[in-house]
Structures are given as structure tokens and as C-alpha cells.
Design goal:
- The chain is of the alpha/beta class.
- Helix 3 runs parallel beside helix 8.
- It folds into two domains: 108 residues, Aspartate Aminotransferase, domain 1; 190 residues, 3-Layer(aba) Sandwich (Aspartate Aminotransferase, domain 2), CATH 3.40.640.10.
- 36% of the residues lie in helices and 19% in strands.
Length: 317
């Protein structure tokens, strides 16, 4: 099922009201502060120079020299990758973000979901989300690099890796290893629709051709370039998120929930009844994430202000 967090329209349709706190996604609710932008980014078509400047900033931020392409979110890369080669047998380390399997099946791939990293070996295309969404499972970079020769091509989705750069294999991206990075989650600007794919030059050229001449808007190119270079904000944000995940886990423990795992941007919990918990939070206009394959798992993002923390604590009490 192609269900997602962020479906706040469903929340308002079911429970009504306004002033919702959307904790159903892993999006940072204290985003990078967008400055005033020069008028030309709104009025002019995006230039190659602007695209190149953004890729250089992304390469520096993600510690890679591999060729890269900026796209309308990591989601666009997920939809394009199945078309890079004839369909075959894909294996996905699961459970995970469901768009990978959905995009592959739509393109005619045979998709098998496996529960262990070693079981990806032998696939024409292997997919690993690292750190994983929704359970936060992560694999050392050396383990992923060691697996790459045993598959036709491997895609590593690092959408939640910004706070944990040691996990990244972006520096090893190449012909048989495509690395995806998200911008909207950690920098909290998901509406910008910006993400990246790093690989070898030929693969990047294929993705660029499929994406068309202007896959990223001018304001997104400018904001992305500036934000990726703001290392002070990055460091302060990682420290804040580290403290706040512990705070959220403490709230959950007091409610009697068990921590399954998570990342710096979301936490997943074992609850007695996920639907009941979601509905109780929804009555306080707090939207959470449940999963169609589990009656007990519930995921929460991090509140963005002390007022939001207070509302969540009261609703969980």
C-alpha cells in the first residue's frame, strides 16, 4: 500500500479542527531559516551554473566527489531508477519506505522483500534504506560496500543520514552504487521538493535526461546551496535532535510504550493498539503514523516548539 505520513488532509477529514501538529513524518519542525532571496531566482529559468553550484555544495556536505544530480526530492529518484535498465529481480531490505517497492513493481520488476542484509546478494537491483524508516536499523558503511559486488546494482537511500555521516557510502557512489540523499527532512523544508542522486557519470546523465531540463525550481537551487553550506546550523541541529529524541523516548516510556528504534528525526514505538493511540492523539489534533502491516507500531516525529511538546505530553498522559 502506498500509504504515507504527512496526510494531514485525512486527519482533518476524520476529526476536523485546525492547528494540527503533524508528527506523522520525519521532517524537522525547526527548519533552516530561509533568508530573502534575489528576485532572479523567481523570475528566471534555472541556469546550469545554479545547478552546478548546488551539486558542488551537496558534494561538500555529503563528503563525496561522485557525480550527482539534483531532483524534485529523493522521491523523484526512486521513481526514475527502475527505468535505468530493463526490469529484472529486485530485492528490498524490509520493512521500509514503501515507495521503493511500489515504483519497481510499476516498472515491471519482480520484487522480493528480505529481512537480512546478506539476503540481498544475487539481486539484479538491491535496495537498502540506511538508516531505515521506520525502525531506524542501520548498517555500517563497510558492510554495504562489501555487499555491492554481489548485486547487479545497489541503491542506498540515505534520506535520514544527515545527523550520522559515518554511515554514508556517498563517497563510494559509482556505476554499481547509487546513493540517494534527501534535503527536505533534516533541513525541514520538505515543500521545496529537493533531493539528490549520486552515481557514476553515465548513470547521472541518464537520470538527468529522464528528469528533464528543469527538475528543480530556482528558489530550491538557491536555498539548497545556502543551507547545505551552513555547517554551524547543521551542528547545532544535530545536538538539539539528539537531546529531543531522548525526551520523546521518556514520554513514550511513561505511557507504557516500548521503543522499537528510530533516527534523529522520528521514533517508532510498540504500543498496545496503534489505531487507538493514533485516535487518542488525533482528538488532541496531533497526527501520528501507523502502518498497515502492524497493529501495534506507531511512529512519531519530534515537536517543533515547547508549546507542541506540552500538547503532546498532555495527550500521551
Amino acid at each position: 500500500m502506498r500509504d504515507h505520513g504527512g496526510n494531514i488532509d485525512r486527519a482533518t477529514a476524520l476529526w476536523g479542527g485546525e492547528d494540527w501538529i503533524d508528527l506523522s513524518t520525519g521532517i524537522n519542525r525547526q527548519p533552516w531559516p530561509v533568508p530573502d532571496l534575489p528576485p532572479h531566482v523567481w523570475t528566471d529559468l534555472p541556469t546550469q551554473a545554479a545547478k552546478s553550484a548546488l551539486i558542488e555544495a551537496a558534494q561538500a556536505a555529503f563528503s563525496t566527489h561522485a557525480p550527482g544530480v539534483a531532483l524534485a526530492g529523493a522521491q523523484q529518484a526512486i521513481q526514475l531508477i527502475p527505468r535505468l535498465s530493463p526490469s529484472g529481480r529486485a530485492r528490498i531490505l524490509a520493512p521500509t519506505y514503501n515507495e521503493h517497492a511500489a515504483a519497481l513493481r510499476s516498472a515491471g520488476w519482480q520484487v522480493d522483500e528480505v529481512s537480512r542484509l546478506v539476503n540481498l546478494a544475487g539481486a539484479d537491483l538491491a535496495i537498502v534504506v540506511n538508516p531505515n524508516n521506520p525502525d531506524g536499523t542501520h548498517h555500517p558503511a563497510q558492510a554495504l560496500r562489501a555487499l555491492a559486488p554481489d548485486v547487479g546494482r545497489m541503491v542506498v537511500d540515505e534520506s535520514f543520514a544527515d545527523p550520522v555521516p559515518d554511515l554514508s557510502v556517498a563517497g563510494s557512489a559509482g556505476e554499481r552504487l547509487i546513493v540517494l540523499r534527501s534535503f527536505g527532512k533534516f533541513w525541514g523544508l520538505a515543500g521545496l521538493r529537493l533531493g539528490f542522486a549520486f552515481a557514476d557519470a553515465a548513470t547521472v546523465a541518464q537520470l538527468s535526461e529522464m528528469a528533464g531540463p528543469w527538475p528543480v525550481a530556482g528558489p530550491a537551487l538557491e536555498i539548497g546551496r545556502r543551507a547545505l553550506a551552513d555547517r554551524d546550523w547543521h551542528a547545532v541541529t544535530v545536538a538539539r535532535l539528539s537531546a529531543e529524541t531522548a525526551r520523546l523516548d521518556a514520554f513514550a516510556a511513561s505511557a507504557g510504550w516500548e521503543v522499537i528504534g528510530g533516527t534523529h528525526l522520528f521514533r517508532s514505538y510498540e504500543t498496545p493498539d496503534a489505531i487507538a493511540v493514533r485516535d487518542r492523539l488525533a482528538r488532541a489534533r496531533i497526527w501520528s503514523r501507523i502502518f498497515p502491516w502492524s497493529p501495534t507500531w506507531l511512529r512519531l516525529g519530534l515537536p517543533g516548539s515547547e508549546g507542541e511538546w506540552a500538547r503532546l505530553e498532555e495527550a500521551m498522559r
